[in-house]
Amino acid sequence: MTRIICFGDSITRGENDSEKGGWVDRLKAHCMKLFLKTRKDEICVFNMGIGGETTEGLVKRFVSEFDTRLLKDGSNIVTLAYGANDIALLNGKNTVSLEKFHDNLNSCIEHALKQNATVYLINILPVLEDDNNIKKRSLKDILKYNDILLSIAQKQNIHFIDVHSKFDLTKEDLLTYDGVHPNAEGHEKLFNIVKDLILTNHN
Fold first, then answer.
1. Cβ-proximal residues to 195 (8 Å cutoff; 6+ apart), any chain
2. Are 179 and 173 in contact (CB under 8 A)?
């Protein structure tokens, strides 16, 4: 048996996907279908996404919520998809600084690795920059924070999933009116990217 525990913000939670509830729920349904078809290696997917969460929120809940869902006799996979809220500007500054973002994620990753879990770090999607958005996010900041994510993945020797580059050229078609959250087509694309990497590596 395998458990995939997906931590993240509203994009992980599946906001704005009115068809199938987001990429994590699509992954959950896919894994259920696989098991019912093959009756081999049941994969249970947990959606731990919280709308509006930053890595400051993650670090406060990660240990207890991860450990509660940890499978003692089986394999555990954890995905971390953060940054869209950390980069949002608050009084002219990023909500969570680059240094704190790095430290928060490192702390959670190190705990997961001590539990022999396989960790996947998912980078930040591009946004449609709009001065009318309440929470302003810049593509320049996204690239800086994504560089940190890649650096963490390399230093910790964990898996890195680059969704940013796969959305960049067609983001207008894959994001909803707010320029931040994927639409159903965007969530389907996220699901396929994550599914192909995780399930291929798992098998």
1. 27, 30
2. no
* List of E strands, the chain: 2-8, 43-49, 75-81, 89-90, 93-94, 118-122, 159-161
Query: What are phi and psi for residue 179, nearest 5 degrees?
Result: 75, 10
Separation CA 107–CA 66 (nearest Å): 13
Indicate the pLDDT class of residue 39, thresholds 50, 70 and 90: confident
Of the pLDDT bands very low, low, confident and very high (cuts 50, 70, 90), residue 106 is very high
**Helix ranges, 8-138 (H):** 10-13, 23-38, 55-69, 98-114
Unique residue bearing structure tokens 């931590």: 7
**C-alpha to C-alpha distances, 133 to 72, 127, 155, nearest whole angstrom:** 44, 11, 35
User: Model-level pTM?
Assistant: 0.95
**What domains can be seen in the chain, in order of their start residue?**
2-202 (3.40.50.1110)
Closest CA to 122 of 136, 98, 103, 142: 142
